[in-house]
Zn(2)-C6 fungal-type domain-containing protein
Amino acid sequence: MQQHQQQQTENPSRGSSRLPVNPRRHKVAPEQRKRVATACNSCNVRRIKCSGERPCRQCRGSSRDCVYPAPIEKITVSRNELDDLRRKCDALERALQTKVPDDAERQHLIAQEGGDPTGSRAGSSSSFTPPQSHTMQQQPAQLYRDEAAANDAEAETAGRMLSDPDGRSRFLGETSGATFLDYLKEFMSTVFPLAFNKPWLSPSANNGSTFLASLGRYQTYDSRPIYEMSNVDPLVLPPRSDMTVMLEDLRYFIQDGNGTFPCGGIYWWGDLGSVPVDPNPASFPTGTSRQEMLDKYRHLAFYHTAFAVACQANTMPDRMPKPEDLSQILFSRARGLLGNPLDITSWTISDVAVLALMGFYLIEMNRRDAAYMYVSNAMHISMMHGAHRGWVDERGKRVFWTLYILDRWLSCLMGRPPTIMDDAVRVPLPNDAPSLPPAAGLRAHVQLARISGHIVCNTYKVAPYDHQPGGAARHVERALQMLETWLSQLPPTLQMPADYRSPDPACCLLHMGYNQHLILLLRPIFFVAVKKAFAERYVTTGGRWNIEHHAARIRQCSDAAHRNLHLARWLLDLTKRTRKLLQAGLHYVFNAAIILMLEELLPPPQQEPPPSPSAESDDVNFAIDIFDEETKTGSNYARDCATVLKDLRSLIQRLRLAPQ
């Protein structure tokens, strides 16, 4: 409660929300009042005295918007009449929910009759947090509201402190895949003793024991440091022919496909078409210090980072770099040129693209905590130079929006607040410009990143700014509507064919991001359905949670997972498997495989043919094969993901065969 009030106090201009009346105050006669009857919203949330003027003295002195609540007409009814109306309302809403179980259809029906679907308890008895049993619906409305409020408060502080293999603890919020896997470990650890007599784990490889034993930990290398090599020379560049090839590869992987992507790509980092000139330290006057030389060639940090990303992106089992730590050598050269990241006097707006690209490299190296810091630093430098308010040219705008996309992606990945809120960003979206790739792909990616921020901040309550009533269900429906609108308004170059085989890899990756956001939104409903299915098998309950009421959302989540694995196959086929999936693609594949394995634990939906077990198995095997192949490059991330998928597959196969 204190946290909620503090958030309102710090954000008085958001909406018209007000604090409740202070319960410690006693009734004061009108002639004895020392303050106005109704304070403005800003004074109300700050608990300060309001003068009652428009604007009041406090708001006028602080240059705040002075907004008063709309007057509410009050009437007097007897207690008996009020109780009768409440009972009738509760009975009617329960009857409506029984007759029209689909939440969206119910809200549409209420809206047609001139009602407020968000204000209806039948409309907001959320599919996001379904009722535990039919008996809950028969409880008094006030108890239901209190319980919903308690659930909201609990969700607001959700997330976990998880330890990596070295014992370092990091906070990972509700949207993090590691947090969801920890919930899954808890569930599996509870279900197996009910389903089997001990010992219920066979002593075989990938039997699930490693997965269950890692409760409270995450099995990746997110927080491990990148080893800094102090003996590298930042003024050394690769051979010119190698630089040309690496920049062409990089443009294909993370920019515009060397001009072949119709959408223009979904990132823009800068000029990747020109090869840098070799520095010539001998041309400096005698007595020039080493630091002066490094400052002169500071721009090479961008190219060193670009070469590091290209080297990492091209690393495959049959195409290993020599030496194997070549990308880290290149990255160390870039860090040597940039110097102290906390020395603000040395940073310019040109360094924002370098830091953003460094963040991308660290994501590829699975150093997400380090990437989180680099991207945050880049965002603060861009704000320091006014990029968020539009004090940049078209190239600067594109770099800023690419940084914004990375910031939102890491925020969602880690379940942490974004660095900058949307209200603070005034820079226009990218536009088409001469000598630059088309802006359609980057614009669509920015708009999807905005929806991602809404999901993280409001749906999962990581940093909520939408305090309108309606509960979790309203936030889910709102986000689903935003995603549907985004998809329907894509320009022709970004529309996906019916067979989901676009020739533009950037377009495919963008649609995989869309599907991942659907999975993220609907995963809680999906997981609740799995838990309820097992609760009904092994625990006697007073009622049954009807999965058919949520079948449409469950199917939507499953379909998104299938589409992502289909798109991953297509992306590999598109390049004849000469190019691999980068971290974003691997992340989408992993999450899709988890959903498809959990789907095997659900009862088949009524009036629909059950999914083909062979098709489900093929998709999961495909995902495991991708990570097994990536493991051959020495990637700890791929090895850990493959282990988790194999362990989970083993556990789920045993649960499917468990006695009823």
